[in-house]
Amino acid sequence: MNDVCKYCGLPISTNFYYCPTCGKKLIQPPLSTSLGKQIKLYAISFFLPPFGLWPSIKYILDNNEKAKIIGLVGVVLTIVSLAITISLVASMLNNPLISGGNQLQTLQDLGY
């Protein structure tokens, strides 16, 4: 039941994430699967797609099944956001009003 801290040598419980005496991390605490953390991860994944990948991968690599699902949703949102962004940029580049093609035609009509 009781163990000793590998840093300070004082007794601790085996399920402690941190030593209550010296404060050192003993084992990796589980990732939070609270609704607030999910919303934050999903928002970052969708609105700032590259920045959502690393936290999503951390959730996928966790042992908790709920965390894995949260991570997969984050990766999917990142991919969807990137696809939308690429599609919008491509459509803007193909639009002659935005790309300047219409201005060139107007200058040719004026004789320049």
Kindly describe this structure:
Helix content is 61%, strand content 5%. The chain contains 5 helices and 2 strands; from the N terminus they run ββααααα. The protein has helices at residues 35-47, 49-60, 65-94, 96-99, 101-109, and strands spanning 2-4, 11-13. It has a two-stranded antiparallel sheet. Helix 1 packs across helix 2, helix 1 (35-47) runs parallel beside helix 3 and helix 2 (49-60) packs antiparallel against helix 3 (65-94). The longest helix is centred in the last third of the chain and has 30 residues, at 65-94. The model has no long low-confidence stretch (mean pLDDT 86).
The counted number of beta strands is: 2
- The number of helical elements comes to 5
Low-confidence stretches: none
Strand order of the largest sheet: 1-2
Order of helices and strands: EEHHHHH
Question: How much beta, percentage-wise?
Answer: 5-15%
